[in-house]
Amino acid sequence: MSISNDNELALYQAFLDNRDTRLIAPAEDGAPNVEFRFGGEWRECRIWEGYLDASLILLKEALQDAPRSNNLVFPALFSLRHAMEVALKWHIRYAGGTIPKSAGHDLGVLIHAFRKTADDLDDEASYVSDYFLECISELASLDPRSVTFRYSSEIDGSPIKLPSNGWNLRHLYFAVSELIVYLDGLSNSMDLSRDERYQHYIRGE
Q1: N or C: which end of the chain has fewer CB within 10 A?
Q2: Positive or negative: CA dihedral 102, 108, 110, 114
Q3: pTM for this predicted structure
Q4: Higher pLDDT, 84 or 125
């Protein structure tokens, strides 16, 4: 939901009129609320989708507000990196694969496991996108342990290094948009990969 300045003022006034000193207050009728009724796969899917959405929103804001871009890029890239990790794990399981015990936060291991879920498919019939996985590999090389965009230094105090050259923010924004489009249709592509009639059609048989 997009909140205009007037709507935000109205929401803030309602907040002041019914002030609850807790950080988290119970849901109420007539107010925007969120619920966490479901768990399992539903929750995990909402998590990676949410982090992806958050990444794109932050990148768009950074693109439109240059003074804030140096601040927003860190949560944007952390959100993107975390989304990719959880999305790979979710889709590996959705395809009937297994997440290796050694995976942890290792995107390289997850990329290999993701490819393995399509081992019995040929290149034409596979749901695997080399472009998508190459983008994830870039993230893996920049942030192998999921700490680069969360912290500025290691536990021992040594700095966590990032490339010193500048990044094209416009390119990053639209590249992430393309990743979202691919992931939006990935589970459907996996379903089709198990449809024998579709497989014969794709192969021209």
Answers
A1: N
A2: negative
A3: 0.88
A4: 84
